[in-house]
Write a structure and sequence with these properties.
Helix content is 19%, strand content 44%. By secondary structure, it is α+β, with helices and mostly antiparallel strands. The chain folds into 2 domains: 224 residues, Thrombin, subunit H (Beta Barrel); 94 residues, PDZ domain (Pdz3 Domain).
Length: 324
Amino acid sequence: MSTWPLSEPDAAAEAEALDAYSQIVTRVADELSPSVANLRTRRRTRRGLATGAGSAVVLSPDGLLLTSAHVVAGASEGRALFPDGRDHAFTTVGADPLTDLAVLRADAGDLRPAPLGDAARLRVGQLVVAIGNPNGFAGSVTAGVVSALGRSLPARSRSARRVIENVIQTDAALNPGNSGGALADARGRVVGINTAVAGIGLGLAVPINSATRQIVGALMTDGCFRRAYLGCALGARPLPPRFARVLGRAGCIEVVEVVEGAPAERAGIRGGDLVVALAGTPVEDVPTLQRLLSADLIESEVAVSVVRDGQLLELTLVPAELVT
């Protein structure tokens, strides 16, 4: 067992490990910091103009930026400040409050895009680096590890509610102003957009994965991301043993409440029904159903399989468009 003070070999090994850690963080900071902007926003309120701040990640050389939707919500004007001293006005191209993502366009050219990674490849304990502008301190860098994966974060827009899936939890220090900034892996690839401070030592980031890339693409081209709407409150629960054996899976989602006049009510769905499939795809939890409710289903007839009173029923549903 080592005793204090450290022997020369132990001290050398510790110094080498620290240097390796520092080299990774400084390299990521050097490579990625030029691609993270400091956002300054102004909102018109009853009392006049209110200011706000946040961060954004460069997506393209011609000025497309990615940030958190709440950073620019209600903003009447804003500016993006870059580490090289450039200061450009920006406009909001599109925002999706239900994933807390927004795409902006800065009046700029020759920006340095950040490389995007894949959060699906992350592992708990992996080193991550957060770059943003906490409390107005531009270009701040913090580092930590992935504390947990698969977290859920409630999101809301007007009357619409949704759960953001597969949120990344990290212990890299985050503060107000970090929202919209980059969470990067050790190779300097952006794997998440920092969105919330969950408590002391806890930060949350919306993942960059196949689902969010699709949303960002829709925001860039259409200015919005369309979703189908059923009109019922749902919750995960285990399947009754008999149906678990028949269907070969353990979970389903229970209809807790049905909104009057909504597509679910018109389809004959009732409170207490257990939804086991939508459009022929097995449904075991709410996130799975959320992924299935794409724009393709809007105003289309869709088969819904439910368990009711010990019977497996097939209903026909015509989803509406979710208004956000």
